[in-house]
Design a protein that fits this description.
homodimer, mainly alpha, two-stranded antiparallel sheet, 7 helices, globular, DNA-binding
Chain lengths: 151, 151
DNA sequence: TCCACTCCTGACCAAAGCAGTCAGGAAAGT
DNA sequence: ACTTTCCTGACTGCTTTGGTCAGGAGTGGA
């Protein structure tokens, strides 16, 4: 249950693009702004492009930009583009797993886990992220001090 | 963001122990009941033992049982025992990561992700799991039909 | 036309994690 | 003693992660 470096990088780069607005931004600038290895980042941006989240142009004056407005792209989309489906169990989606015996209701638990995850990650857009005005659901969750302590 | 086979197995075995009540249950019986490779399961049970979740006795009439009442053990505990901390980013806890530039608020998002995850996984006990009477939070999340569709 | 610049793509790589298996040892009961 | 069951470490094959390297291809400017 962890977020990979790749997903983290992808969201950070996307945030940087969201903040940049219209003009194309060079990969190198993104890499510097977020301190991400350039060559690795290029692969990530390529995946984002294939997913239809960013566009790109080559050559001088080239670079990357968002394919759609920043308030229309959620973090979930970005993460899925590079990590595939969120919240799989044993690499299959929870709704397709059949549990036996005393574990039959475990499926519902994993479904709930996925739903709660989605609730935050599908709610926050890139625009929210750069502005810092996160949706109420998220504010509420981060509000409690013990959301901030490890366990 | 996936649940490993190990964590899934651990919870299933724990559910089986919760249902069994007092008497020690052989590893073999657990393995059969939940269709888990025996030798792998033994390693898992050992970790659960070290975490203080189960107890065990060897020899004839030996087996495993829960160290505490089933309504006092959450799924979170079981998962943590075998997978370590839930919801890390790049293998460090979200509260210890410093983001720069336009990604500064990403930390709050990951914190919220973790909190929402905890909300379900720390709420459901083994007793809930075997009885099928899941806490309201979970029922609410699984209630919506689109919690059950993949994306 | 040619060149510099930037993205695009595939191949490769080391290290770590995952999902187990194997072999044997150590307690408990009979 | 002997069987049963847990306990433990070592090992293994495979996949994923987090990159790097090398070169190709489109774009704009001189």
């Amino acid at each position: 249950m962890r977020v990979s470096a790749k997903a983290d990088y992808a969201v950070r780069a996307a945030a940087e693009l969201a903040a940049a607005g219209e003009g194309p931004v060079k990969g190198e600038r993104l890499a510097e702004a977020q301190d991400i290895p350039l060559q690795f980042l290029e692969h990530i941006l390529l995946e984002l492009k294939h997913a239809g989240i960013v566009r790109a142009r080559r050559g001088a004056k080239g670079g990357y930009w968002l394919a759609r407005p920043a308030d229309d792209i959620t973090i979930a989309e970005v993460v899925r583009a590079v990590e595939g489906p969120i919240a799989h169990v044993q690499s299959s989606p929870p709704e397709s797993i059949e549990y036996r015996g005393n574990a039959v209701h475990l499926q519902e638990v994993w479904i709930a886990v996925r739903a709660s995850l989605r609730q935050v990650v599908e709610q926050v857009t890139l625009a929210d992220l750069v502005s810092g005005e996160l949706p109420p659901v998220v504010e509420h969750l981060t509000g409690s001090p013990d959301a901030w302590v490890a366990r």
